Amino acid sequence: MFAIILILLVVIIAAMLIYAATRPNDFVVTRSISIKAPAETIFPLIDDFRRWPEWSPFEKLDPGMKRTLSGAESGKGAAYAWEGNSKAGKGRMEITNSVPSSLVALKLDFEKPFRANNTVDFSLSPSGEGTTVIWAMRGARPFVAKLMGLFMNFDTLIGKDFEAGLSNLRRLAER
C-alpha cells in the first residue's frame, strides 16, 4: 500500500513538473483605464518618479522604504531605486523611453525578494472625452515562476496592484 501511494505521489509530482515546463517562457500583465483628463495632465505624473508616491500602490508597501532618485529629473534617464521590507523588496527602475503625452517605458530590475528583469510601458492615447492609459509589464518566466504559476495567478496578483494604481492615477488627474 505504501509503495502504491509513493508511486502515485511521484507520478503526480512528475506530471506537475512536466506541465510547468510547457508553460510560456514569458509573461505579460496589462491593465487599462479611461481617465477624463488630457494626456498632458496625466503624463507628468508617470514621467517623473518624484510624483509616483501620489498614485503608485507600491509606494505604500513600506512607509519606511529607502528611496533614491538619480539621473535626469524626469523622462529618459531618470532612475529610482528602493529598498524596503519584505513586501517592498529591493530594486531599481529607469525610464528608457519617454514620448511626451504618449509613452513612458521603463527597465525594471528586482533584486529582492527575487531577481527579475522586466520592462514596463505606460501608453497614453486620446479616447472620447479623455485618455486611455495602459500599464503593461513584460518579462521572462523562469521554471520556478512557471511552477509557482500552477498555484497562484501572477496576472491576478500583479493586476490588482495595476488596477489600484490606475484608479489612483485617475483620481489624481481628474481633480
In DSSP terms, counting alpha (H) and pi (I) runs of 4 or more, how many helices? Answer: 4
What string, H for helix and E for strand, traces the elements in order? Answer: HEHEEEEEEHH
Enumerate the spans where pLDDT stays under 50 for 5 or more consecutive residues. none
Whole-number average pLDDT?
91
Main β-sheet description = 7 strands, antiparallel
Give the DSSP E fraction (strand runs of 2 or more residues).
35-45%
Adjacency order of strands in the biggest sheet: 1-7-6-5-4-3-2
> What structural class do you assign from the helix and strand content?
alpha+beta
The shape, in one word, is elongated
The share of residues in helices is 25-40%
CA-based gyration radius: 19 Å
Q: Total number of β-strand segments?
A: 7
Span between N and C termini?
68 Å
Structure description:
The protein is of the alpha+beta class and about 180 residues long. It has 4 helices and 7 strands. It has a 7-stranded antiparallel sheet. The longest helix is centred in the N-terminal third of the chain and has 21 residues, at about 1-20.
